[in-house]
Records
---
Amino acid sequence: MDSEAAAKMADRLATVVREVEEEVGRVMVGQRDVVRQVLMAILAGGHALLEGVPGLGKTVMVRTFGQVLDLKFSRIQFTPDLMPADIVGTNVIAEDASGSRRFEFQPGPIFANLVLADEINRATPKTQSAMLEAMQEKQVTVGTATRALPKPFFVLATQNPIEMEGTYPLPEAQLDRFFFKVLVRFPSAEELGEIVRRTTAGHEATVKRAATGEDILALGRLARDVPIAEPVTDYAVRLLMATHPQGSPSKKAVQFVRYGASPRGLQTLVLAGKIRALLEGRFNVAFEDLREAAYPALRHRFFLNFEGEAEGLSTDQVIADILESVPAGPR
């Protein structure tokens, strides 16, 4: 891609992102960082896990994204009695006009472009595992038949903090398949005032389409073409390696981490850095892009040991220590 074409596509990306964020902002009050991070995950073709206490608007946000991006939307409410077949679908006996019977596949709600997995950690690990193949391979297997999911396909899952009663921690393999884990903070006093004004005034905000699934796929391909210099790639590798306690320059990682992040974390870090560079108007990845992407890309991909959990430490605190311990720039 020549520089002129790249500049045009970068401008197109910035325009789409600005329009999407503006439309989502008609419904959501504040949460600009959350909206931006979810949109980055979508542009990367990945999935996002939104964590926060109930009532912060996570479900409304995901539904609004479906409307703004003109995608087929589906919602799955996860509960302790939900079964895998309730998600992927099942074979049912159908009878035709002649009275003959045959098995017919009844697709589940996973067959959509944008799937809201609401309160995903309310379901048992067996049910949560039904999402693994769909999230990684963009297909599901029922019986002996494998069926492709629509393109594009994104899972935006909401999760209550695991300290809440009646929740199950997500399996590590499933957590690793989320591109970003996004923390949804509690609104400020000013934002709370705006929320109550919007939601008690007797009228609903309406949004319009700002992009299509084809736009998202095209812009995602553009992001992968953004060049990244070898020293920046090396910095990403060193950040990931620092999440492993063996030989990490971070004292907190050495003392409190049980398992470090997987290679998917490195892929996410680099791709998120490319997308952020485009959003900042650059067609090359800077060290700062990786530092900004480190929190949502890595916070769910490494795990604390018993000592870290007993200390009440968060993975974000470990990431902050890693960013201080690993110098940017060439070795």
Note: Residues 120 and 128 are 7 Å apart (CA to CA).
---
Amino acid sequence: MEATRQLGKSDIRISPIVMGMWQAGKEMWAGIDDQEIRRALRAAFDAGINAFDTAEMYGKGHSERMLAAATADIRGKVVYMTKVFSNHLKYDQVIAACHRSLKNLKTDHIDLYQIHWPSGAWGSRPVPIEETMRALNDLKSQGKIRAIGVSNFSRAQIEEAARFGTIDSLQPPYSLFWRQAEKDALPTCAVNGITVLAYSPMAQGILAGRFGAQPAFAKDDHRRGHRLFQPDIYPRVQDALERLRPIADRNRVTLGQLALAWVIAHPGVCAIAGARSAAQAAENAGAAGLTLSAADRAEMDAIGRTVTAALDDNPVQWNF
């Protein structure tokens, strides 16, 4: 596996595994410790991860501030990725949000600045993509951002955004157990040289084998509403995991590493993996060292489809 990959058409190079920073914001998660997150960030970097993905919405900037606190002394060696939320997509709002993120990150530039959700999502007021892209292009020309990305966009939304500027990345939910992006966005990204940054590549920890037959979550843990944990789907998930274990064993990797290796085996696809401890971060990074055989990939593909066959086409993973 190559050490780094080109991000879209930009001159940015990123590791195949990117560390996700949602959990570092604490909101909608339980049991997160700031000091342990900082140790996890450094462990990820020491293990070969150079890219970190956060957002203004993750703990109202807390995640961004945690990233800065842990990596300020190695800023020149790491790639900062953050996002503007769907309620801040008017021209002036984008500019203001970017400046807040620059302040939180204690940096003079953001390497990849992304639209977190399309305009109109989560009850936000619709804003023409041309207006949002004008703000992003201006920030780029000023050197405040280096590349523009989108997240949770459909093929049509990607194509519309690309009319007004260069789109270097797409963040969709994508894993062995969540594959709607294969029907729509992934082919478009492949044709147009857009890097796919797959989030939830371990299906929120399911593919790491972290949950038993009856998972229990704290009241404020967002995973309570994840569709893969619902009673009509979860038994299929458990059966599939048991069939994946022998493949992990013969490759001498964990289930989580196997799931990440499957994602990054796809050309142009990197995996955003969260971690709440140094051990998890190092384990995630280790997935970049596994090259799956064609036979293993085919077997995993078939196993994954026993789960995805029971899902509808709704790309949103949660029943909020």
Note: DSSP finds ten helices and ten strands in the chain.
---
Amino acid sequence: MSAERVLHELEPLYDACSRVLILGTMPSPKSREMGFYYMHPQNRFWKMLSAVLKEPFPTTVAERRRLCLRHGIALWDVLASCDIVGAADGSIKNAVPNDIGGLIKKCPIETVFTTGKKAHTLYKRFFPRLCEDVCLPSTSPANRTISEEDMLREYRAIAAALKE
């Protein structure tokens, strides 16, 4: 499989009350196909988020949107475009960032969480002093180096940031 140029076509999810921003690298092919974030059925993002927020697992895009906005969570990705093979973050080349700074000016974001090391590396490269940031483990089905219990422990930082 060869790299293809991918343009980020999903709008950021946020409102005037968003205090936490969660960033991935680039939507997966499944997420692009379904028009929303973390939509691969084996991705553990929604399982982690609903657990740390003590909410029922959201099954529809509408439920997922409401869950985030109800809790002051914004979603987007670090990149506006890149060359990538499938959903393999390790293959990313020619990365162009989204306007994260512009988004942060529109709402009271206090903390940025990145989902995975590549998203964190790219965030730090493009936005080194923008906002406090925390690197969380990737919820991608490709990341099986961490147990769900350990991942959940780290994702509790989101709930803690929302309580501050």
Note: The mean pLDDT is 94.
---
Amino acid sequence: MNIKTISDINVGMQASVTRIITEADIISFSEISGDKNPIHLDEEYAKNSRYKKRIAHGFISASLFSGLFGTKLPGEGCVYAAQSLRFKRAVYIDDEVTASITVEKIDLKAKKVFFTTVCKVKNKVVIKGDAEIFIP
């Protein structure tokens, strides 16, 4: 997409990205965020949890939205104003996550675009939310 101004954006426009969540992603994210919860890092601990194995940090998948906003839709120069998230299912190591954003509303006066945000694994919703993005 080649979005130049807010007038180039229309309700219903979409962008998506797919990424496999790896062991390295989880280790790196735990270092960056400081979240060293054993549910993410310790196989023995996770075996006794409700998930039965290690799960990825929810914000790893949610961070894919940021990449979509900054590079695809709306693109360069936009800035997050708000993001709501509902974590519906766990994401596991080696899951293929598809993050999608869809334009729901445009406020030309405030130079904001409102999106629905969804992450899916095997066509099941794992994260659902809404975002507000400032447009330059």
Note: Helices lie at 23-33, 38-41, 43-47, 58-71.
